[in-house]
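Milestone M4 deliverable, item 7.
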Amino acid sequence: MVPLAITFLVTALLYASVGFGGGSTYTALLALAEVDYRVLPLLSLACNLVVVAGSTVRFARARVTPWGRALLLTAIAAPAAFLGGLTPIAKQGFLALLGTSLLFTALTMMLPVAKRPEGEGERGRVARYAPLAALPLGYISGLVGIGGGIFLAPLLHLVRWDSARAIAATASLFILVNSLFGLAGQVLKGGEGRFAAAVDLGLPLLIAVAIGGQIGSLLALRYLPQRWIRWGTGVLTAFVGGRLLLNL
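Output delivered:
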């Protein structure tokens, strides 16, 4: 448990430093540790909540969250995340989907982030269609135990949806709400027994990600360049995703 908790701390540190929760990597690490795959989303989504809750509040206090459009994306995704949490899935399908998601996540982390020029008129023409992506992202979030923000943010950058800070704030809110709704669906699907198993295993991991998340936020604000952090996170995610797919 101690090595796993340390790995969770490092993962939370890296992801929090770039504004994400790390749910996909938590799930893969637990799978590699041979934890019951049906418990994995419960733990990963709970860890997501711990990591992104603070960043969501910080963005709100800084008044950079575009509440109207951010809440629209979240409102579309949240019911789908709940349905994803309720959906039964076989172990092989779960692990294959998770591994593929991790490799795609690694790619998005290592791609350069496009910045929107200042001014409302510079927003991309297709940005208005961004809510169409919220539904499938929400469903995948609940199904495999991720927040979905890691997929949403690159898409919003690509279509020049808003400024980099506004997109980070939106992704943080998106992860928080999707994780909450996905967790609710997973709890209803698994029943009391599976929830109790997650609680027994999860407390040290939750403490680890809480510490890692705070350290990550501090490093991002004061010390390390964002590009270095994104590349480090991408390499870690690609390694874990590749290991997971090779073990199928």
